[in-house]
Specification:
With 401 residues, this protein is mainly β. The protein has helices at 6-22, 36-40, 98-113, 147-157; strands at residues 30-32, 47-57, 79-90, 116-117, 138-143, 165-174, 208-213, 216-217, 222-228, 234-241, 245-249, 251-254, 258-262, 271-280, 286-288, 292-296, 299-300, 307-310, 316-328, 333-337, 340-346, 351-360, 365-373, 376-377, 381-383, 390-391, 396-400. The longest helix has 17 residues, at 6-22.
Length: 401
């Protein structure tokens, strides 16, 4: 989602899209964002004015859970804002001249072809927030303004009517200022709570992948992939991420029903991945099993633990956390302090293992720490088979006055 600077970030991104598209339409054209009466006065060069005249709330998102919220967690819904713009061309001659109409036509064609704002369209300056990380893309669509609507608008502007067109930017999700709550995970579901198990068809000659253990793995963990006919060639385990590509893993053991591999590689980042096995025969033929989901969990590597935190002069507690594998630019990173999610405040690039977090001081105490990257949490469980199951007492922060 986005912070309160997202409105300015989306408006700036819209300006950038139009500037790039209109640079060759009329010589000396500029894109402005003033009120129509100010844009009309003293205009000495061609311009397209993009005026944000109205902001409304999208009812369909009003009571929806914010993106990324998990079952059992609670958070205030995001504020779903719809931005309403009026695009008006200005030239130093007749308001309905050929140049003015050409500017408006080119702007409409540009937004027809570029109707979704992607991460590459935003200025990622710190003062414009993190709108580029919003999981729901902002869509630019024409607004059907009637003659009566246009008449009321231009009367309110107290300016002479000019040919113009309305557009909507939907939807900009603004984070709630109220903190979310992220309860600690369930350590153990039960002795037999394993869920359904898949089995391969013995008559099928193709290799099959039916399971992967564990489903959430950290760096240096061993993966156990089960199935059938997994020795029908030389196996290579591949992890694939939708943004960061594929990473091959070195196999450590192979049998007909089982392949083992170690989670490792400099290209790995925390987050959701998929795993598959590629088998290459002696004659060079390749067989690929189906893919199964696998989450690569971050690991907090800061030493010593537990961390110690104090209230600073600004009333906030600042924590520096080391992690592995490294986190990439564009990933959503949070430190879960007890049941409070805290977004990252300092991040280098393009990869970073040292992260900084800051949160308001709410009193002294000891809080369990988890690192969440793209929805995958670091583990805080020491022994899930113990009675009762135990959390790692050192994986915490002790906040002092």
């Amino acid at each position: 989602m986005s912070d309160s600077a997202a409105v300015a970030a989306v408006t700036d991104a819209l300006h950038q899209v139009l500037r790039k598209a209109l640079i060759n339409t009329v010589r000396g054209l500029k894109v402005t964002s003033t009120t129509p009466d100010e844009a009309a006065s003293g205009q000495n060069q061609p311009a397209l004015n993009v005026f944000l005249y109205r902001m409304t709330i999208d009812g369909s998102w009003r009571n929806a859970d914010p993106p990324g919220i998990r079952p059992g967690e609670t958070a205030r819904p995001a504020l779903p804002v719809v931005l309403h713009y009026l695009l008006t061309p200005y030239t130093d001659d007749d308001p309905h001249s050929r140049a003015a109409l050409r500017i408006l036509g080119a702007a409409m064609a540009a937004l027809h072809d570029h109707c979704v704002l992607g991460p590459e369209d935003y200025d990622k300056s710190p003062d414009l927030g993190d709108a580029h990380l919003q999981p729901e893309p902002v869509r630019i669509t024409p607004a059907d303004l009637s003659v009566d609507d246009m008449s009321k608008l231009w009367s309110a502007f107290q300016s002479q009517y000019r040919i113009s067109v309305g557009y909507e930017a939907r939807v900009v999700l603004l984070d709630s200022a109220r903190p979310a709550r992220t309860p600690l995970p369930v350590v153990r579901r039960g002795a037999e709570g394993r869920g359904p198990e898949a089995a391969a068809d013995p008559a099928d000659p193709s290799p099959a992948l039916t399971g992967v253990t564990p489903e959430v793995a950290a760096v240096d963990d061993e993966l156990i992939l089960t199935g059938s006919k997994l020795d029908a060639g030389t196996p290579v385990v591949h992890l694939t991420h939708p943004l960061f590509g594929a990473v091959p893993l070195t196999t450590t053991a192979v049998s007909e029903r089982e392949v083992r591999a170690t989670v490792e590689g400099d290209e790995l980042v925390p987050g959701p991945w998929s795993v598959t096995v590629v088998l290459t025969g002696d004659d060079g033929t390749r067989q690929v099993t189906r893919t199964l989901p696998l989450a690569v969990a971050p690991r907090i590597t800061t030493s010593p633990l537990p961390l110690k935190g104090r209230r600073g002069a600004d009333g906030k507690v600042k924590l520096k956390v080391d992690c592995e594998p490294s986190v990439a630019v564009g990933q959503r990173v949070q430190l879960l302090v007890g049941d409070r999610p805290v977004p990252v405040t300092a991040f280098g690039g393009p990869r970073e293992k040292k992260l900084t977090f800051s949160f308001p001081f709410s009193g002294p105490g000891r809080h369990v720490l988890r690192l969440r990257v793209d929805g995958v949490d670091s583990s805080v469980v020491v022994d899930g088979d113990a009675t009762p199951p135990r959390f790692n007492d050192d994986m915490a922060v002790v906040v002092e006055t």
